[in-house]
Every structure is written in structure tokens, then in C-alpha cells.
Amino acid sequence: MPVDSRLVDSSAVALRQLIGTRGVSVTEVVQAALERVEKVNGTINAIVTLNPRAMDDARELDQRIARGEEPGLLCGLTAGIKDVTPVAGLRTTFGSPIYADHVPDEDAIVVKRLRAAGAVILGKTNCPEFAAGGNTFNEVFGRTRNPWNTGRSAGGSTGGGAAALATGMIALAEGTDLGGSLRIPASFCGIVGLRPSAGLVPTYPTDWAWDTLQVTGPMARTAEDVALMLQAIAGPSERSPLGHAPARRDFVAAVKAGPRRGARVAYCADPARIGVDPGIERACRDAAFGLTQAGATVEEINLDLSAARQAFLALRGLWFVTHMAPRLDQAHRFGPNVANNVKAGLETSTRDLASAEQERGRIWQTFRELFARFDYVVTPCMAVSPFPVEQNYPDAIAGKPMQTYVDWIAPTFVLSLTGLPVASVPCGIDEGGMPVGLQVAGRPAGEEAVLALAAEVQRQRPIGLPAH
């Protein structure tokens, strides 16, 4: 029996309510998602491995509902898992030929929590090799294309998840964020990505248990959907040394309540000091100052985080060497992005790393002082519009050549160093018809407030979804 294809364009929250009232079955939702995959994935290349058990999982959930069982917070919602995150029994390649045929025998913690909450794992989403890069392509699966313009990049490294969300192939996406990998593709594809505080969502398994620079987090089409997903996946685990106290937190209620009236918002157009496309900056400025309509006060500030660029490069080098340590004997098989990052890391001195940690401490102090005056810091998420998909990265920012090949993602990576919760939320469309993301940073462990403000931005400046 045919199903209504528009089902999969609904928000995750609306879909969950419809399933809860038995207005639609889980089987129908999953069937509609698979039909959407069949229709658009051949062009977009966002989902690289489908879960052959997805329909079986859907039927099992429908049977539980029929028996009157509580099927879970995310019952029936389709989820895409980034291809660096293990899913038991499902091909997981890390975007690398080294793992082209790798099939894990254990779910990552985040996958276990999604399953326990009733989500249906639809499949694995594309990413660069070992999540290295802001454009999603690899030798195993090729390039993911932006659904707003298939000649453009979907961003990275969670580009497959973002593109799949924007086209309705999935309702929720799991991803990781080192220098912006949840926020860059969210901005490019017009959806919401949250970099949560380190440890809020445990990362296990991992090759670096004490990693505070990369985090696991959620993406979805709306801030409320992200809150719903975060509700199911957040919380400490004995498998991870990083974690937050298991105090009861209600991310969904916080989004429904909205930002508090009188919230103080600081806006900075270019904290990384790399330049920003004028059209992007204009859209972000309008969105930021538009928050006065919700009772916020908005003030432009002069925030200079340019010194963080060199600090991040040093710490990124350490990150790659540490994570690649178990497979350095296969370094000759790494693609250029991974190989160059490992090489840079091996050449980084202890003095460089010490200076980077000192700078990270200064950034923390800067934000501590800012949050004595403000509740939020908001900035443009990206300095450039999505560039041609065949390019590894753009050549220039606002007409000026880049100093380093990663400068274009500096607006996100300088905020990674803070350890703060940071979201990207769509706030407009640029002159080329591509989405623009506004970056929202909040206080330590302030995910509730960040998502509440992101939801208000979406309420004021909806951009819709791309045609498909």
C-alpha cells in the first residue's frame, strides 16, 4: 500500500506525536523514508549503507505499540548514523579503504541509546575519511551533494547526515564535531546541529578516551527535534571517563518555554578575524538583532579569537596522531587530508602544544567574563557559502586568499576550543539561494538555553526545505 511521502518532511516531534496517537504506524514512516531514499539518494549520496533490518525493526515496534507497551521517546523516528560510529552488524567504513569491509560486532553507546528509545536505524551516513575535512567525500563512497544545489558541497564532516535530513531521508542524525563537523554541514544544508558539552553524550568506542576536543552530538531539522534526540542520548556512562552529573534535565521543555525574556545576546561578525561574505554576515546580523522581537537585548561586541587559530591547528595535530596511533603502520594508505594532519601532528612540538593549551585557557577566561554580561554569544557559522562539491575547500574568503587550508572553518573551530555548547541554526538564504547558519554559543552545560534561542531564530526566520 502506498504511503504519504510528505510524512518524512514533518518534524521529528510531529512524527512522534502522530505515531503516539496511532495516526500513522512505524512501518508506514519507515516505508516512506525508504521510498524517499530510493527517490533522492542516488543524486545526493548521503546514505551509504542501508540497514536491511529497518522494516523488521519497524514491525517489531508496531507490535509493541499494539500490545500497549511503552515504545520509547523516539519511537518510530528514523535515524542516520555517521559512518565513523559503529553499528553492530552494519558495514562501518570510517570513509577509509582500510575499513571498506569492516562490520562491527557492537553498537556505539549513542546507537544503543537511540535503539533503546525506539529509534529505527535507517543506515550509515557519508563522511570524509576518519571525519577529516569540511567537505564530505571519500574513496569508498564518493561525494555527498548539497540538496539545495547539487553542484555544491554539503559541508562536513557530518555532511551525509545533514543532507539526508534536509531531503527527508531521515528524521534524526548522529554525528561528531571536532572543529565544526556538526555545525558546518548544518549551516550549508539548512538544518540544526548542536555541538554539546564534552562528555554530555558519551563517545564509546574511541581511540582516545580522554578526548575533550571532539564530541558526539545530534542534528535534526528543528531545534525542538534536536532537543528530543538529545533527551534520549545524553547522560554519563561507565564506559567513558568524561561525563556530566545525571541530574534531571529537560531539553524539550526548555525549547518549548523559549529563551527567557530579557536575555542578553552578544553579536560578533568575525571572531576568527578571517573575513566573512557580506551577504552571510548581513543575514546573521539581521537574525541576531531580530531577537529583540522576543524581548532580548542585543549588543555588538569586538571579540578577537584570532590567536585561537594556531592553537587549534596544534591541538588538531595531536588529535589526529592520538586517534590514528593504532593504525600508523598503515599510514601509507591514508588519504591526503588524514595523512597531512598526521604529518602536521608529528611535527608539532611540546612547546607548541603547551602554547595551544595556554591559549585555550585564555579563551575560557574570555568567555567566563563575557557570560558575566551576556547570556549568549552569536556569530555567523560559516564565512563562505557552499562551494563547488568537487573542491576540497574554498580558495578565498570574502575575496581574500586563505592563510591556511582550514581557515574557512575557523568560525566554528575557535568555538570548539571553549568547550561550550554551540549550535548552528538556519537564519536565512544568501544571494545564491543557499542556507545561512547562525552560530549560538551558551554558558557551560547550557544546552537548554542554546536550543531555546535556536528555536526562536527558526520561529522568526523559517527557510523551509529544499525542493526534492
Record keyword descriptors for this entry.
468 residues; alpha+beta; 11-stranded mixed beta sheet; 14 helices; 17 strands
Low-confidence stretches: none
Task: Kindly state the number of beta strands.
Answer: 17
- Class from secondary-structure proportions: alpha+beta
Biggest sheet, spatial arrangement of strands: 1-3-2-8-10-9-16-17-13-11-12
Strand residues, percent:
15-25%
Radius of gyration: 20 Å
Number of helices: 14
- Described by the principal axes of the CA atoms, the overall outline is globular
Distance between the termini: 22 Å
Instruction: Give the % helix.
Output: 25-40%
How would a crystallographer describe the biggest sheet?
11 strands, mixed
Q: What is the typical, i.e. mean, pLDDT?
A: 96
Note down, in words, how this protein is organized.
The chain is of the alpha+beta class and 468 residues long. The chain is built from 14 helices and 17 strands. The strands form four sheets. Strands 1-3-2-8-10-9-16-17-13-11-12 form an eleven-stranded mixed β-sheet, sandwiched between helices. The chain has a two-stranded antiparallel sheet with strand order 4-5. Strand 2, helix 4 and strand 3 (120-125) form a beta-alpha-beta unit. Helix 8 (251-257) crosses helix 14. The model has no long low-confidence stretch (mean pLDDT 96).
